[in-house]
Design goal:
With 162 residues, the protein is α+β, with helices and mostly antiparallel strands. The protein has two domains: 50 residues, Orthogonal Bundle (Arc Repressor Mutant, subunit A), CATH 1.10.10.10; 75 residues, Alpha-Beta Plaits (2-Layer Sandwich), CATH 3.30.70.920. It contains five helices and four strands. It has a four-stranded antiparallel β-sheet with strand order 2-3-1-4. A hairpin with a 6-residue loop joins strand 2 and strand 3. It is elongated and about 55 Å long. The two termini are 21 Å apart. The model has no long low-confidence stretch (mean pLDDT 91).
Length: 162
């Protein structure tokens, strides 16, 4: 079994917090903010990348300015809970660009999808013509986001979360 955790040192935590704030900081800027020289800073970042702690870098877009005014969470139940049925559903969902996140969950539903659309009519078409026709769908329930209070801004990697 692969080790799923990486032992983070204080400097690693500082670097991760800074990179989550702005991944465009130069190595020199990161080193200065962490009280390090550039070469050890670069090495630590490479170690975090190689260990998979840093999974990638990307731009954070403003959903509304990008023309995606609707965000919804869709709870989905599937007909059968066998492994093949779940894998078929997961593969189909993974290919849908409107689904920006998908989680297998416990409780009252099997999956939770986070979906974006330009406007309500677009979401309605997507829900009725695509989601409802996914393999094995038994039931779905949608909750619309009225206001984003705290959108994802990074993971809490500080001392209180080890």
């Amino acid at each position: 079994m692969e080790n799923l955790t990486f032992s983070l040192q204080k400097k690693d935590i500082q670097l991760l917090m800074l990179l989550q704030q702005d991944a465009r900081f130069t190595n020199q800027q990161l080193a200065e903010k962490c009280g390090m020289s550039a070469t050890p800073c670069w090495r630590r970042i490479r170690q975090l990348e190689e260990a998979g702690v840093i999974a990638g870098y990307r731009a954070v877009l403003d959903r509304k300015k990008a023309g995606l005014g609707i965000m919804a969470f869709v709870r989905v139940n599937i007909d059968s809970h066998n492994e093949q049925q779940a894998l078929t559903f997961e593969q189909a969902v993974s290919e849908l660009p409107q689904v920006i996140a998908c989680y297998a969950i416990g409780g009252g539903a099997d999956f939770l999808l986070q979906v974006v659309a330009r406007e309500l009519d677009d979401y309605s078409d997507f829900a009725m013509k695509v989601i409802r026709r996914l393999p094995g769908i038994k039931a779905m329930e949608t909750s619309f986001v009225l206001k984003e209070i705290k959108p994802l801004s990074g993971l809490p990697v500080g001392d209180g979360y080890r």
